[in-house]
Fold this protein.
Amino acid sequence: MNSELQIALLDELVALQVDKQPFLDAQWVKAGVDRYFDPAHFADELAVFRAQPRIVLHSSELAEPGAYRTMQLSGRPLLIVRGEDRRVRAFFNVCRHRGAELVGDGEGCSKRFSCPYHAWTWNNEGQLVGVPHEKTGFPDLDRSELGLREIGCAEHAGWIWVSQQSDDEPDLEAHLDGLHDELGGLDADGMAIYQSETFEFDANWKLIVEGGIEAYHFRVAHKDTIAPLFLDNLSSYQCFGPHLRSVLPRSNLAELQEMTRETWDIGVYANVIYTIFPTTQFLVQEDHIAWIHLEPLAADRTQLRLSTVVPASELTPERERHWRLNHDLTVRTLSEDFAIGAGIQRGLQSGANTHLNYGRFEGALDKFNRSVDAAIAAIQ
Ligand code: FES
Ligand SMILES: [Fe+2]
């Protein structure tokens, strides 16, 4: 993020702090609750997840030619692999002979993928290279028609994106709507994963996104974890198409009033949270990124993968304790959010509320939910 933008974002928050004001939308709004538990609504969202480019891996997770990962993404089995040509491709993890799951284990490195049923074999660029008893069983078989079924995949700014809509490479510049270069500025392509952990919890996926785009709950829900690090109920946001950039000032923000603007460094005085629609959040901190990948499993069940992403050059024994403390704090904070989220889910399904209420300082939640609605409308 360039210095001018850092100063502008901090300036806005310093002024609000001086005036003892939160960042406010014009109005507070009511939002219907069905979107959190209605299976028909979740089916619509599933279609959105498949239509949108989604970040699935950090580039360093597929560092070498042949490196691969399997995953379930929006209910579909995928194989993501870096080919000998170093290009990352995404395929359905499904054999083209009679549909067996091609690769059973979650990750590894391989030049070839051989089906466990009858050993049809593909190379790591998806080309069919082996068919036992081909001449007798499949005379005139055109191998070029039976490459692995490919879906759109792209690599940008250190992240691997998959779009299930087609086999075309997703247009990330258009998708990111103004954040394309800013994401590049995070220098994530020079980073590596310190640790990843996967959790599952009984709540709608949007409840976790929403908890990441307001600071109203910090003083209460996170009083034992991150609350002392931040100012009470102060955060700003800006929309970029369906994506959001939120800025959460840290408790040292007032120091900026004594400093010349040119020396302001946003990393020291605020966390920047990018909500990359629909299911990625980057919590950008002074020296690392907490990356949240949400995988909605059902209207009331969500998988979350938390990765602490750090500069590759600092993945050293000397820094281990520092990264461990940061990672553990994020896990503890998220655990507080999971418990609250599961309680909300039970409450929503009880019928007690027909609507939720988003205050003027919770405007980002309304914007996010409108983006979900717009994405559903766009594909219907
Ligand atoms: S189902 Fe894969 S080789 Fe037969
Ligand atoms: Fe939270």
In short: DSSP finds ten helices and 19 strands in the chain. The chain has two domains: 3-52+187-378, 54-169.
